[in-house]
Amino acid sequence: MPDLLKVSGLKIEATVYPPGEDPQRVTIVEEVNFTLEKGKVLGLIGESGAGKSTIGLAALAYGRGGVEITGGKVELNGEDLLSLSKSGIRKVRGARVCYVSQSAAASFNPAHKLGDQVIEATVRHGLMSREDARRRADHLFDVLGLPEPKTFGKRYPHQVSGGQLQRAMTAMALCSNPDLIVFDEPTTALDVTTQIDVLAAIKHAIEETDTAALYITHDLAVVAQISDDIMVLKSGKTVEHGSVAQVIEAPREDYTRALVNVRSIRHEEKQDQSEHFFEMAGIDAAYSGGVKVLSDVSLHVPKGQTLAIVGESGSGKSTMARVATGLLPPSAGSVSLGGEVLPPALKQRSRDQLRKLQLIYQMADTAMNPRQTVGNIIGRPLTFYEGLRGSARKKRVQELLDQIEMGSGFHDRYPAELSGGQKQRVAIARALAAGPEVIICDEPTSALDPLVADGILKLLLDLQKQKDLAYVFITHDIAIVRAIADSVAVMFQGELVRFGPKSEVLSPPFDDYTDLLLKSVPEMRLGWLEEVLASRKMSAGGN
Amino acid sequence: MTTPETTSFAGIRRFSARFPLASRILERLLLSLLLLFAVSVMIFGGIEALPGDFASTYLGQSATPEAVARIRSELGLDQSIVTRYVDWLGGAMTGDFGNSWASGQSVGEQIGKRLGNSLFLAFFAAIVAVPLAVGLGLLAVRFRNKLPDKLINILSLAAVSLPEFFVGYLLILIFVVTYGAAVFPSTVYDSMSLLDRLNAIVLPVATLVLVVLAHMMRMTRAAIIQVMSSAYMETAELKGLGALRAIIKHAAPNALAPIINVVALNLAYLIVGVVVVEVVFVYPGMGQYMVDAVTVRDLPVVQACGLIFAAIYIGLNMTADILAILANPRLRHPR
Predict the structure, then answer these.
(1) Would you say the C-alpha torsion B107, B109, B114, B119 has a positive or negative sign?
(2) What GO cellular component term, any one, is given (chain A) (predicted)?
(3) Of A178, A293, A527, B268, which has the fewest beta carbons less than 10 angstroms from its beta carbon?
């Protein structure tokens, strides 16, 4: 069988503009070769900066931003896409090769109906009449498991959920009957329970239409469910390329092994969890406008232990952080620390009360002033809480930098010069600088690559041991909960579903929601998706 | 805590949840009315607080205490401020702004003529400026960061940086004094033909265009660049759509709201803010009428002009806001 897609000697470069220096050419992708047969799925996997999205877009002869494809061939059915004229490549895009992006919410035009956008390319390329395309779109909505497929297309993007948008974008890609679809992290932005549905829908649709696909993700467990082959990328180069079974079960390279074995942290659950060192009792909270987001939530964590709050978007877990810090005073209930009830609002709290309770955010990027040096960012709380200045402050900043395992060279650097993991470390040092007793961590690792996230988690655990810190760790990731928690709280739609020691919360018997949540977390083995879907069908049939 | 309040607001909240579009527009209309009322109070109060007195200015040397008192009672100035305000507002709402103290003529009639002239000037300035600004904005986006973009930016910035009276005198110096290619002063009469009128207003129109162009052009440019960098424009490109279709079908509907806003703001300026230009070019519009009235303390005229200017300004901004609300699919099609 001839290859549908043949990529050979691909080289992709970009021009970068470092501040204060001359523009530089950097190579993003080099010497990448692969082939793809009709109806097969190749998974491209790697961390951010590995060039996987860039390779995916190269299949549409497209370079994002200042990215340019400067060498090699991208042959679709023997025709080199890179040699095509502008109008030639336009005929390929949206007709023979389609693209599904990570954020369907941003990729759909808010001003037009979904149905019109789904069929637009197909109709504009003259592949089908408007009526035929509509019928096909309705059929695809049905195949992808969207609600009311006949009328779904009449809705606007803001009228449907994120998971539905992601499926609608898949329908948009499938509509023209393309030879190849590029899926660029299509489930990364979704909740796990939604991800599994979208994943199943995509897999089903690919099988049904016999389309070939490039599936890009950073999550090896996800790609294991959907691909035939896997290509592991690092810094724009191929690390390993083989069948799914070989890569997952018998990786040849160290880097692949590290990816497979990520989340190797083990943390022994502490036995005595009776102390109510930090406590939130009977919390009700509502945002202005009267929407109630928390009702009667009670939690506590002992000194030196970690409480993980787990839940999906909209479960109210981040609101817990806002209530704890006083950013959102609760409408009922109280927050106490070390036996002392804290005033509900941030403004009423004393400086010492503020000092004891610190917060680490999900996006270290937006939580730091880009115009301040690392030294100033970490030094500011030292001056604010302890009145340190000059060389005393500098010395203390250096101690903190050592604690987060960053050298002295960082004192005068700006956040923009740091990597994602380094930024989060600086954010941790800033929280430590205050000398806290409790740190609230709001998804501090969810924007990071798995290996980098592991490093951050290890650091947090080490610091906990040294300083006897209590953590309230907010996350959507069950794997992280397993790795670091002593006690676990499961939240769903503003209510506490389950709370207790990790070993109890994560073992049967489960309530329905916790069961669904735990079963939806992709596991790094072949056939996991099929098993879950089969067990779901059985339980649905049993009802 | 606030039970009676919450129940009385519950109905409103239900209404706004069911009809977000209608409730937003209604809210905007009410706000405009409230604003207009507040402005009327401020105009009346502000003019009341001005130093100087019409009666003594009018009588000059013959301002005996008796004569002053007589005139004050003729004009109703001896009544309380609240009575006079209510009378004035009641009249204004029916279109009766009273009679000018200086000429004794009906203020409404005079203003009608002057407002017509002002609108005439603003209309032609807008007809030139709006398409030119949007066109230049598009051009600047098309050649972003290249020479045409930079040239357009620098020249329009230079134009907006110069005070309007300076631009006016500069144009007079070049086109009237040096080359004799244009007419000055720009005074128009009832007896003039349309062509003569157009000929007369070339220079004030040019001045106004130069003043408002940059703002609209830059906003158009920024709005379109903002939209062009969004993910759905990439989607359009990856669907293989042509550049023109992508811009018209996918970019334009989303860039509309900010452009409408800045256009309305500038239209309002063209009508309300032209006082200086009218004076420079001796053009018989509202602005000059108002300036003349201020010098002789002809209060009914000043008040009427102020109120009409405010009404036009508020009205145009309200229209822009309502159009922007209508352009938002989230409000047109609630969940």
Answers:
(1) positive
(2) plasma membrane
(3) A527
Which residues in A lie closer than 8 A to residue B238 (C-beta atoms)?
60, 62, 93-94, 98-99
Cβ–Cβ of B231/A101 closer than 8 Å?
A: yes
- Test the B interface: residue of A101, A109, A116, A151 with most B CBs within 10 Å: A109
Neighbouring C-beta atoms of residue A331, cutoff 10 Å: 15
pLDDT at B109 over 90: no
Position A426, amino acid: V
Q: How many CB atoms are closer than 10 A to CB B197?
A: 16
B294: Cβ–Cβ under 8 A, 6 or more apart, which residues?
Answer: B302
- Per-residue confidence band for A136, with pLDDT thresholds at 50, 70 and 90: very high
Nearest-by-CA chain B residue for A111:
B329
What distance lies between CA B332 and its chain's CA centroid?
A: 28
Q: Which amino acid is at A322?
A: R
Cα A377 from chain centre:
26
Which value does ipTM take for this structure?
0.78
Residue A475: other Cβ atoms inside 10 A: 22
Rounded to whole angstroms, how far apart are CA atoms B110 and B99?
Answer: 10
Q: What is the CA radius of gyration of chain A?
A: 25
pLDDT at residue A150 greater than cutoff 80: yes
CA dist A46 and A218 (Å) reads: 5
pLDDT tens readout for residues B272-295: 777 888 888 888 888 888 888 888
Residue of A26, A25, A29, A27 lying closest to A9 (CA atoms)? A29
Domains in chain B, ordered, with CATH?
A: 114-286+327-332 (1.10.3720.10)
Mind listing the domains of chain A with CATH numbers? 38-58+83-260 (3.40.50.300), 278-373+416-507 (3.40.50.300)
pLDDT (tens digit, 9 = 90+) per residue, A166-182?
889 999 999 999 999 99
Alpha-carbon gap, residue B132 to B217, rounded angstroms: 8
Fill in the amino acid letter for B224.
Answer: I
CB contacts, 8 Å: A62 with chain B: 237-238
Question: What number of other Cβ atoms are within 10 A of residue B128's Cβ?
Answer: 16
CA distance A521 to A528: 10
CB B271 within 8 A of CB B119: yes
